[in-house]
What does this fold into?
Amino acid sequence: MPNPWDVGSARLLESLGFEALATTSAGFAWSNGKPDQSVSRDELVAHVASLAAATSLPLNVDSERCYPDDPGGAARTVELLAEAGAAGFSIEDYDPATSSIDDVEEATARVRVAAEAAHHPPDPMVLTGRAENHIRGVHDLDDTIARLIAYRDAGADVVYAPGLSDLDQITAVVEAVGVPLNVLALPHGPTVSELTSVGVQRVSTGGALARSAYGALLAAAQELLANGTSSYAAGGPSSDSMEAAFMRR
It folds into this structure.
């Protein structure tokens, strides 16, 4: 389940045959010239609506903490995402305002509120409960597992601990949680086939595709600036392939 950051990247990924997409908070923020976790709820909802209208694929939303401090809290955020066309969303337990992991009871209560809102509509949304430990410097697998189980029990349909890269640890999480586990694809982490072999049911890319694309842009621009050459253009897709991907079906 790759993570596009705008309509164009979503349409290109759909053209390759992926069966679902997910937004990336980092990639979307960067596309607007902002740092991660600085996008407003209104901006996110508008972004989701544009992607959902541009692709026929199910769309999962990186909705950070589900904006619990905005009017109506997490429940209203879920309603807005559903209205925008999201098929699912995730909710995190890291608070950028304090640069710390939320207390597990607080985080679990927020998952419960989100789950009630997600599962109430006639067409329920898939809720992913996220434990942010391993991308925030807290490498405590026991705490991660305990949090994921708590989020599962509060109503999460899928659980996710981004940053896990050791296959044995991932296997331990799969065996402990008893619901589908999402794993973040990492440069030096297990392959999709290796993850599948231990029971992982969903793999996403986070901001990696956006970062790679911006890396290519920077490398090309640096060549142009330093050398006055444009050899970078030889490596891009053809105009015809781009046009084909963007044609409405």
Remarks:
- The radius of gyration is 19 Å.
- The mean pLDDT is 97.
- DSSP finds ten helices and nine strands in the chain.
